[in-house]
Amino acid sequence: MAHSAAVPPGAPEQGCPIRVEHDRRRRQFTVRLNGCHDRAVLLYEYVGKRIVDLQHTEVPDAYRGRGIAKHLAKAALDFVVEEDLKAHLTCWYIQKYVKENPLPQYLERLQP
């Protein structure tokens, strides 16, 4: 009998869409996990009039390895593109994401 205790109830499953929410007031992108109790988050801060610092991405241990952080990183970088902002990448994970997805629209908006 195959039973996986590693998948928490309500966790995004393979093939189940991951929905990223953007809270502009709190300056964060979130994915709700297991209803509203757990969440993955990407935090950013405005460090200039048109510059955001993508500071931190966090996915709870039980949900890691499922591509949730990729969805957060993509949503944040797409926000930078759509709003015609520049981005400083403090978060190591977003730096890694850009290296693995070197799209011109992302690269041209990076701040050193």
TrEMBL record:
Domain N-acetyltransferase: residue ranges: 21-111
Pfam families, per database record: Acetyltransf_CG (PF14542)
Gene3D superfamilies for this protein: 3.40.630.30
InterPro entries: Acyl_CoA_acyltransferase, Gcn5-rel_NAT, GNAT_YJDJ
Similarity comment: family membership: Belongs to the NATD1 family.
Name of the protein this chain belongs to: Protein NATD1
Gene name for this UniProt entry: NATD1
